[in-house]
Amino acid sequence: MRGRPTTRKRTAFGARLVAARTSRGLTQKAVATKMGIERSLVRYYERDAKNPKIESIRRFSNALDVPLEDLLGGKHRPLSKGGPTGELGRLVKSIEKLEPKKRRFVVRLFSSQLPELKRRQS
């Protein structure tokens, strides 16, 4: 059941948590399921938690597969830029922006074609 959107401002941690969750195309329910907690607790951390415990932040970091520093608001430098570049890099970024269901479809489609492409290349 959905209630009225709140007019309260999110905490800084809550805003970073929402950004991390939505950038991965996850719902509050999906995060709660991954963590083994209730959705209302995810909502609390996104909206009201002012001083979350480090263990809670670590659990969210693991569930969302983001660096702890991203949720804490610190700066971190990746060891390398890594990842594909050029046309392939643009395609990967486009795929990452798709909703989860469409993203899974593209990944399955690509994965199903890879063995044949490798065979032809040999």
Question: In words, what does this structure look like?
Answer:
With 122 residues, this protein is an all-alpha fold. The chain is elongated, with a radius of gyration of 18 Å. The mean pLDDT is 84. Helix 2 packs across helix 3. The chain folds into 2 domains: 12-72, lambda repressor-like DNA-binding domains (434 Repressor (Amino-terminal Domain)), CATH 1.10.260.40; 86-121, no CATH class. It has helices spanning 12-23, 28-35, 39-47, 54-64, 68-72, 86-97, 100-121.
How does the SSE layout of this entry go?
Blueprint (H helix, E strand, L loop, with lengths): L11 H12 L4 H8 L3 H9 L6 H11 L3 H5 L13 H12 L2 H22 L1
Helix pairs in contact: 2-3
| Integer count of domains | 2
Give the C-level CATH assignment of the largest domain.
Mainly Alpha
Gyration radius, in Å: 18 Å
Determine the CATH superfamily of the largest domain.
Answer: lambda repressor-like DNA-binding domains
Please state the average pLDDT score. Answer: 84
CATH topology of the largest domain: 434 Repressor (Amino-terminal Domain)
Count the helices. How many?
Answer: 7
> How does the helix and strand content classify structurally?
mainly alpha
Write the element-wise H/E pattern from the N-terminal end onward. HHHHHHH
